[in-house]
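User: I'll paste a sequence; please echo it back and then give the predicted structure.

Assistant: Echoing your sequence first, then the prediction.
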Amino acid sequence: MQAIAETLFDVVYLVSVVTIGILMIKKCRGNMQYKLFGIMAVTLGVGDSFHLVPRAIALCTTGLDNYTVPLGVGKLITSITMTVFYILLYYVWRLRYHIEGKQKLTWAVYLLAAVRVILCLFPQNRWTSAEAPLSWGIYRNIPFALLGLIVIIIFYKSAKENEDHAFRFMWLTIVLSFGFYIPVVLWADTIPVIGMLMIPKTCAYVWTVLIGYQDMRK
């Protein structure tokens, strides 16, 4: 039952975000903000597919224990594409609110993203092992959380200052995604049921994508 329900959820999620992303790219009418948002949505869906597709196959066949390597490689790829997702979201912010300058902020975003990717590539992560160390899960997510914090703050302040009704909850979608994700990183290995928090975390990202799509339609 879990295999069917989780697989259906993942299929709907992946198809939805990639489809929305493609629609935004095709129908942006030269608006770079929406085109970038579409690229961001496709990056999210394609990146997550490297982890969710092997997971769905594992659940529907011989179980997760027999798919440790593809699942681990998928997690690595997803970790990198999620970092790219936040870089793109940062540039959506710059385009939407006509931000110029702020070079130090841009450098901070790139530095945190680079540190995150470099930490993900260390062999100590043991991505393809069934017993990956929790410590490295924490290390690689520290710069990621800081990157997310920057994006939360800038969208919150800009939406409020510009009375941007359409993007007024963008910051909240990111808060929710991290709020559901951090407990999974810390405790999912010892308390497996906590892994279920990835479902509302995924819904938060769908909300992020829908905010951009609905704004473009208007």
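The mean pLDDT is 93. Residues 32-60 form the longest helix (29 residues).
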